[in-house]
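Below is how a single chain appears once it has passed through the pipeline. First comes the sequence as given, then the structure the pipeline wrote out for it. We keep one example in the README because the format questions we get most often are answered faster by looking than by reading.
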Amino acid sequence: RYQKAEGAATGYLFPYQVGYPLLQPPQGLERTHNPIMGVVQGFRNASHYSYQILKGIGGLIVGSVPVKSLGGPIFIAQIAKESAHQGIVPYLTILAIISLNLFLLNLFPIPVLDGGQLVLLGLEKIKGNRLSRKFVEQYQSIGFVIVLSLVILATYNDLSRFWLSMLEGLGLGV
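Resulting structure:
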């Protein structure tokens, strides 16, 4: 607890780092009893994490963030478990970050995802009529390959981390 001009307040720090250190938390979470300020703080945190997520995705694209930092379902389960051990606030924060991450990725203009569908709608609007079935099928095929490649890469990274930790646990560190 600490004193503020408005009265006593309780501060929470969230020291958890997710996978790659780009997802740094804001400078502590403040507990308020004012629901309007809670919503405002929620928007601030969401915009902070959105920026960090987009910065990380940009880093993946330009190569400044290693591809090994991508994680799949095993990594997500590990992070959720570790954050749950830290308490309800870190756990819910991690769940919110994961949801926000999926929301933002879904808006990317990758065929098959919602962002890709928006691109198709925009192209139809510009063209003035429907796109050819063949074009849409080829576009969707490209998106399917991109998404499947990301899933395979994330799963490969998960399994690599899992087997490395198993070998280290057995004293056979690589």
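The longest helix spans residues 133-169.

See the next section for the split statistics.
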